[in-house]
What we know:
The chain is α/β, with parallel strands linked by helices. It has helices at residues 2-11, 59-71, 92-105, 133-144; strands spanning 18-24, 27-32, 39-46, 49-56, 77-80, 83-84, 116-120, 123-130, 151-158. The longest helix has 14 residues, at 92-105. The chain is globular. 31% of the residues are buried.
Amino acid sequence: IRTSITRAILEEPTLRDCTLHAYHKGIMETLRVPPDSKDAIGVTVVDGVVELTGHIGSLSHKQLTGVLAWWAPGSRDVLNVMTVEPPEASNAGEVADALRLVLEKDPLIHHADELGISVRQNHVTLSGAVTTEEERRQAEYDAWYLVGVRDVVNRLEVRRTAGRR
């Protein structure tokens, strides 16, 4: 699980300027230290539970890192306790932007740009059309994976002709 998560972080272009540490049985392994790096991500995995520590420059990067951890095969839970520096207050627009970014990166989601995302008081509503039930479920999971989301209403419809061909 740890290897899958660290590989995903290392390969994610928006996180390329982050220092990355992986912890195993209390021993830290440094996997990347970019020049002039201000952000640092720590990854610890114990019995399928992932803990993300460190500090990062934006809420959307924190959210994306958490979702990459959730996507790792075998991940049972993710505790995303990274701090955002400078601090940013979470708001509906930030949650919607983070979810849009995640849906665009999710290989199981097609035509993410055509899906509707509404956020109000950390309640997410998804709307639009997808091509499979799996895609519908995955979009909902992606919303749940974001820190602070309290409820997800999935109004996505499955249509074989959803999106552009």
